[in-house]
Q: What sequence folds into this?
């Protein structure tokens, strides 16, 4: 990995652009699976407000392997990984648990998801915005050397810090936007009027206005432009 590729992280000006760039670099070097998990400060990865991104693994396999297996079975949590503060390989996960049988079940789930090797990196951010990143299913064994691991660890950490910069207000509201409110604010961020959004979603213009006003209150803003900017900065909607 080159220094220029790491520096280009700072050229990403939205969470979606950052994620696309991360995937581009990971694929370039031969990792077929990329995972990013960042729970709210001092919360478990299963918290509903946890930011999760993954690629190269199906929704079903991610839920079964990562959430039901790695997290809920206690093999890997932000707590035990961050305390260790070091990168480790998928094949070293067994060192984090004494539950031998559960680990055997996890390996079966990993095999069914075609995951047999990869890196996991602890990530540290401002105000305890800590998380985990993983690059897995390497196309060749050389990607699992300590030298490559060190390079991708720096890359993952810098990407995490960039996301923290882009979403300073990520956990700045007490009430989350509903799925419908996020849809409407998302369309507003793309320049659609209430009438146009109503047509897209099959709702009346007055209903769109009501949802938008509820979003204003939750986001602590007074107009659709401010709502769009704040929702994007919090990674609630993507343009």
A:
């Amino acid at each position: 990995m080159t220094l220029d590729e790491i520096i280009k992280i700072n050229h990403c000006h939205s969470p979606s652009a950052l994620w696309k760039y991360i995937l581009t670099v990971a694929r370039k070097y031969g990792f077929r699976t990329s995972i990013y998990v960042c729970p709210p400060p001092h919360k478990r990865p299963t918290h509903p407000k946890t930011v999760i991104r993954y690629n190269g693994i199906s929704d079903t396999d991610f839920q079964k392997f990562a959430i039901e297996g790695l997290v809920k079975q206690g093999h890997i949590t932000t707590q035990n990984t961050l305390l260790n503060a070091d990168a480790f390989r998928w094949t070293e996960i067994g060192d984090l648990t004494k539950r031998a049988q559960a680990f055997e079940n996890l390996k079966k789930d990993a095999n069914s998801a075609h995951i047999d090797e990869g890196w996991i990196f602890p990530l540290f951010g401002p105000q305890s915005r800590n998380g985990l990143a993983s690059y897995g299913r390497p196309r060749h064994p050389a990607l699992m050397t300590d030298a490559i691991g060190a390079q991708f660890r720096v890359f993952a950490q810098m990407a995490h810090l960039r996301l923290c910069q882009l979403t300073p207000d990520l956990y700045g509201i007490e009430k989350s936007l509903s799925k419908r409110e996020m849809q409407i604010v998302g369309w507003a961020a793309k320049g659609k009027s209430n009438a146009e959004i109503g047509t897209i979603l099959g709702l009346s213009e007055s209903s769109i206005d009501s949802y938008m006003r509820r979003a204003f209150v939750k986001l602590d803003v007074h107009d659709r432009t401010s709502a769009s900017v704040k929702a994007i900065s919090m990674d609630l909607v993507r343009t």
